[in-house]
Amino acid sequence: MKDIRIESKPLGVGLDLGSSAVRISLFDYENDNLLSTTSQKVAYYINDNDPCIFKYTQSTPEILCAIDQCFKNLKIDKFHQNIKSFGIAATCSMVVLNNNSEPYNLIPNNLGKIHDVIFWMDSSSVQECKEANKLIDSSEKDKLGGSGFIAEMAVPKLIRLFKFKKNVVVMDLHKYIAYIMCKKFNWSFKSLVDIPNKNGVAHDGELSGWSNPNILKLVDEAASRIGPVIDTDTKNVMNITSHIDCYTSWFSTFPKPDKSVCVVAGTSTCFLFASSRDNLVIPGVWGPFTNVFEKNNFDKDINVYESGQQTTGILLEHLLQTHPCAIKSGLSQAELHVKINNYLDCNDDKGSVHLLNKYKFLYGDFLGNRTPFADPDVRGMYIGESLDCSFHDLCMKYLCILEFLAFQTKFLIDRLSENITQTFVNY
Known about the structure:
Nucleotidyltransferase, domain 5; 2 domains; 12 helices; 17 strands; 30% helix; D-ribulokinase activity; ATPase_NBD
């Protein structure tokens, strides 16, 4: 932590929970200067060998343990009385609790670990997704890209969950973390009350924000089990807000309505566009979503649209975890990234490195297509495989991934450009 006196400073806290790490930063509330930041790793689990309802899970006890360690690093507990605002971002995952708001283990007898988070990456609810899309009309599908729900979204997951588990409570992960922070610091829960979005559509199809009666009818009795259950309280009022992580990026700070697309890349990648136009529907793109921005920041209401790739950063992670040369190297992924990029740079000096790759091609929708096709059954394909397991082969496969991501990025931006002119791209 920086050598700076903060005992009497009003503070702001930002918490960002990604797929594999939580990052927390401390800010000067008066001028937004960054005072200190820290991070901790967080695991997610792939349950291939278990007869379970959902394949991809996380653990809130592990998440909260990582958050507590970050708090210790930043000494937040010591200065929590100085906190004036708290912003929380997390993946669009779902927490499952029992009636006492305790973690509900979706995979019992799993080495003592508690798996109570249905991870955003999970696409187990394909059948439930098809069932739901048969029951919603075209105007509702238009706001979800034209095809309706995809299996990553919360509504199909909720339908699937309640087929097997009735006596549970569910929350969006970002709202759950906000709920825990309010309990921890004795803050008011008032900001966590679910207020439907202006157009009745939840951001990215998450749990909170719906008012459309046709959508609520889909989840039937499960709608009453969406938390948090808030008691009337008179605790300290705190400016605490939470949201899906992609919306809390640079995009929320400087969106440039109607002029720019913001690309937020990580394990997956989101393409975000803000518009002042009413009722604009873009085929193959989610939205419009309302209630993303504070209304007093703009002269008029701003709608948000999102397109995305489900597998981006995870493609590189998967390659470095599975390629024989990477495994034998004994190097960390960070070290491998540096070594591979140095190799590609050296070869590029002799002529375009892409010419070395001209007989190889990767299609990287390993977990299905999010937009514009909304097809959970699409899978990846690699053309040009051989028996080569050398470092050169590792580098060429790495380059294939980068090429696929570039092609896919252009494809999605072109899709937006068909409906939006004079748009700049911010990465």
